[in-house]
Amino acid sequence: MNKLILPVAIFFSVIIAGKISEHFGVQGSWKVGLLCLVAAAVQIAISRYQRAQKQKAQG
């Protein structure tokens, strides 16, 4: 189940960021760049959270 958290979080965050960028009229490469930044930020945040939880469990 833990392996599904990252892809699901990225999927939903990119969908939400896409809807927000459409609302503000962002188009083209700016929109693609924004979605890539959102995906990268979510990946970093989830990885750090999972690493912290693993270290807590170990000691």
Decide which structural class fits the backbone: mainly alpha
Helix content: over 70%
Alpha carbon gap, first and last residue: 22 Å
Tell me the overall shape: elongated
Q: How much is the radius of gyration in Å?
A: 14 Å
User: How many DSSP-defined strands?
Assistant: 0
The major beta sheet can be summarized as:
none
- Domains, number: 1
Summarize the helix and strand pattern as letters.
Answer: HH
Number of helices: 2
Low-confidence stretches: none
What does this structure look like?
- The chain has 59 residues and is an all-alpha fold.
- It has one domain (2-53).
- It is built from 2 helices and no strands.
- The chain has helices spanning 2-23, 29-58.
- The longest helix is centred in the last third of the chain and has 30 residues, at 29-58.
- The radius of gyration is 14 Å and the shape is elongated.
- The two termini are 22 Å apart.
- The relative contact order is 0.14.
- The mean pLDDT is 93.
